[in-house]
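Support request, please re-run this one:
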Amino acid sequence: MKTLKNLFFLLTISIFAVSCSSDDDKPGVTFSEENPVDLYLAASGFNQKSVEVKNSAFYEYGFSFKPKVTGKINALIVKIPDVNTNLKITIWDAATKTVIKTESVPIPTANVTVEKVITAITLTKDKEYFFTINSNDWYNRTKTDGTAAVYPIVAGNITITGYAYIQAEDGVPVFPTNARDTYYAGDMTFKFQQTE
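Re-run finished. Output below.
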């Protein structure tokens, strides 16, 4: 009987230990993905007027931003008013003006949003990045009264710090240095997911 009690005791301890260890092994909170562009366009007023620009000169253009939390970019999202079989989207380190990653996104149909899932790009809280595309096609977005947006603009866990462009060659990323606050050329964005 004593052996049976000891066995029962050991079995109870084992079950308790396994139960506790499995609680420790549960993954942490999974955060939802965010797409900052809609909040940015609404807060800036650049959702009021849009004009298609097609077959212009090539430019590298986009927005600078800072994540309010540590996270990652899981996907790239873009829509342009023309077909492009090899559209280049680049994530930059804004401080060093160096490329973190460039992805090619085929756009088979004009005016249709394309999403490309990518190997996640880790972003550090409060570090400034630049998100650009290289194209001769875009939507020129402005306020109806033509006034400037006031930066920074908070869009969920992403703070948009500005917009800039630079003339470029087709498919050759160049860091944009010409800041503008009276329009936004797009449409491009990403899916951001907090990790901590």
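Helices lie at 2-25, 37-44. Residues 60 and 174 are 6 Å apart (CA to CA).
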